[in-house]
Each structure stands twice: as C-alpha cells, then as structure tokens.
Amino acid sequence: xxxxxxxxxxxxxxxxxxxxAFLSAIFGxxxxxxxxxxxTSVPGMKAKPVIDMxxxxxxxxxxxxxxxxxxxxxxxxAGEWGIPGRRLLRKGGEARTHxxxxxxxxNPQIERHLIFRDYLRCHPAEAARYSRFKEKLAxxxxxxxxxxxxxxxxxxxMEQLALAWYAER
Length: 169
What we know:
Elements: H1 11-27, E1 31-37, E2 51-57, H2 60-63, H3 67-72, E3 75-79, E4 86-91, E5 98-104, H4 108-122, H5 124-140, H6 144-150, H7 152-168
Parallel strand pairs: 2-5
Antiparallel strand pairs: 1-2, 3-4, 4-5
C-alpha cells in the first residue's frame, strides 16, 4: 500500500465513532468498549488517514465467529497478524480507511497503545516531533511495507518515554 500522510482532520473522530457504532451493532455483547488510538486519535498529528480502533472484548475467540460476516461486509480478516491474542480487521482495501484491533480485556497490548496515545495527547511537542519524523520517512519510502518498519525504532523509543511518564503519574 502507498504511504499517504495527511494533516490532522476532525473528521477522524466522527469516522471512528461511526465505525464503533456500526461494529457494536454487529458484535453486540462481545464488545466491552471501543477506543480510538494511533495517530488519527491525536489532535494536530499528521497521520496515514487510516482510523486505528481497538475493540476490547471478554473472549477473543468469539470474535472469530464473525469472520464470514465481516468478509461479506468488505473487511479483510487478518487474524493475529503478528501479535498473539489480537484479531485484526482491515476495511477499504488499497484505499484503507480503518484498522480494527480486537483484544481480550486482559491483553497487555491494550495498556501499551492507550498510554502511548495519552502521552502524545498530553505532550504536543512530542506529537509534533513524531509528525516531523513521519514526514521525513514518507519522503524516503513510497510503500507502507518499507515505511512502517523504518519508524519502528523511533516509535519504540517514544513508547518508552510514554511508559516512564505514565509510571510517574
């Protein structure tokens, strides 16, 4: 997929809310709550215009019962996609609009993602630094398959800052 970076858009919140309502109607009681995370959830950040959302569920295995229906609705069902205990659904094909990450309520990935999001929301200078880094990468890499791995070390460093910030609170 081609790297597409966009300026922050207030529409991203609405797109998240609309999708959360739609998915809640499909998954019903399986969902405990949804969270908007990733760069589209941080006001002012540049981002690939793909809404990252997290569905927190009681039993991750029950999400798989909906795979056929989700495919019929146009979602790519990607399974764990490299993260044990996660279920990933992607919407929009090459013009992707949403990534839906389902985690069981006890999965440690939940806290990691939400702490990082909250850190960036509370530290606009760090969000701006991350945005600048992503812009430089987007100038160097045309495909997300190259862009995403190239930002991994930077993101890991920033996540450590976020975890230290959270521990001090």
